[in-house]
Amino acid sequence: MRTPNLFAAASAELRPLAERMRPRVLAEMVGQTRLLAADSAFRRAVESGRVHSMILWGPPGCGKTTLALLLAHYAEARFEAISAVLSGLPEVRRVLAEAQARFETGERTVLFVDEVHRFNKAQQDAFLPHIERGSIVFVGATTENPSFELNSALLSRCRVHVLEPVAIVHIEDALRRALSDGERGLAGMAISVAPDLLSQIAQAADGDVRRALTLLEIAAELAQDDAGRITEATLLQVLADRTRRFDKGGEQFYDQISALHKCVRSSNPDAALYWLCRMLDGGCDPSYLMRRLLRMSIEDIGLADPRAQQMALAAWDTFERLGSPEGELALAQLTLFMASAAKSNAGYVAYKAAQADVRTLGTDEVPLHLRNAPTQLMKSLGYGADYQYDHDMDGGVALDQRGFPDALGERVYYQPVSRGMELQIKQKLDALRAERAKARGE
């Protein structure tokens, strides 16, 4: 098999540990146990050299680039890589032309496009005829949901393979391999590290093997001043400013706000607080979180506990006055209250139902008895005639007075739930609606 260009010998001392330890065969890859299972169709196809155009979708450091390299390795193909961040359409056309020339001489090209979701539609379309002809095996890597970021024409020509964050136990395997490898790793430095400290590095990597190896390399360099021992003190320096994975505009962002919303809705205050903290920790704009929490107070709690909306506005005001980090406690308390409160979407459902009628049933006239009659002409035309002033009626309600256009008849949108304050509203409305129906002879 031809060794890919990026596996060619280089000055090992100058390359980062993560690059030196990049797997050279599938057996060296860690994680991705579903996709790369020994009996999986994907693995059998790769090892036999039968590769196809694909999109690799997964978080940073999960092995997308490595897998693309291995595809070229097993297929004995030329490996070419471009980045959608750094490359424009002229470079794309040049690489494709070179691949076409090789194809005509019988040589295959695996074209790896990193961050493919950053290419616009025209740039993505440039690959289509070459994928169809087979002059390239297209491998696009993305951290974003391909359904939203890639055009349908490209997706229809590629299979999407989902890669997962690498589990801590598998990252630990990669770290131990780096420590014991004398050719590419750190065995020559005679680094010692306790298993629990190695686990701390793996956990801090947050599913990213490349990040884990980088942290290990930094720790190993610092350990040279301590007889090669990576200690708690060493890790305090290395891990002091670590951050968790969070994409402020991508799918991960929307997955997490979805989780927060659904945990509030399902009255799970502990889980809701967790997702709130995850988003704050990832750098989410607190104003965005406050807008979403305010919406939840209306959509999912509503009249079952109107205090939620008042508390949401008060929490927003509190944060604006205190700022971070003190103001974040107001968001936390609001989240706990809302998740614990009685829930009702009856108001939301009623609004949508009334909105649908307005949009689909046409523009019906306001009944004469409900119209305003500020002039004598309007009064002579019957505006306001036979209107019953509710405060003058027994019980304070004109039971037989209709409120809808005649063509619609009386309709019911709002159905309060038997929870929280809406239970009282339900009891009152049920009785009132029954009395109205009786008064109208229904």
List keywords for this structure.
two-stranded parallel sheet, Helicase, Ruva Protein, domain 3, alpha/beta, elongated, single chain, Zinc Finger, Delta Prime, domain 3, Rossmann fold, 442 residues, five-stranded parallel sheet
| Coarse morphology | elongated
Number of domains: 4
The parts where pLDDT drops under 50 for at least 5 residues are 6-10
Task: Output the radius of gyration.
Answer: 32 Å
Number of strands: 7
Question: How would you explain this protein's 3D organization?
Answer:
Helices cover 49% and strands 7% of the residues. It has 442 residues and is an alpha/beta fold. It has four domains: 31-162, P-loop containing nucleotide triphosphate hydrolases (Rossmann fold, 3-Layer(aba) Sandwich), CATH 3.40.50; 168-238, Helicase, Ruva Protein, domain 3, CATH 1.10.8.60; 251-340, Up-down Bundle (Zinc Finger, Delta Prime, domain 3), CATH 1.20.272; 367-439, post-AAA+ oligomerization domain-like, CATH 1.10.3710. It has a five-stranded parallel beta sheet, sandwiched between helices. The chain has a two-stranded parallel sheet with strand order 6-7. Helix 4 links the parallel strand 2 (78-83) and strand 3 (109-114). Helix 14 (269-281) packs antiparallel against helix 17 and helix 16 (307-322) runs antiparallel to helix 17 (328-340). It starts with 16 loop residues before the first helix and ends with a helix.
Q: TL;DR?
A:
By secondary structure, the protein is α/β, with parallel strands linked by helices.
Element layout with pairings:
Elements: H1 17-20, H2 41-47, E1 54-57, H3 64-75, E2 78-83, H4 89-104, E3 109-114, H5 121-125, H6 128-133, E4 137-142, H7 146-149, H8 152-156, E5 159-162, H9 168-180, E6 192-193, H10 195-204, H11 209-223, E7 229-230, H12 232-238, H13 251-265, H14 269-281, H15 286-301, H16 307-322, H17 328-340, H18 346-360, H19 376-380, H20 422-439
Parallel strand pairs: 1-4, 1-5, 2-3, 3-4, 6-7
Helix pairs in contact: 9-10, 9-11, 10-11, 11-12, 13-14, 13-15, 14-17, 15-16, 15-17, 16-17
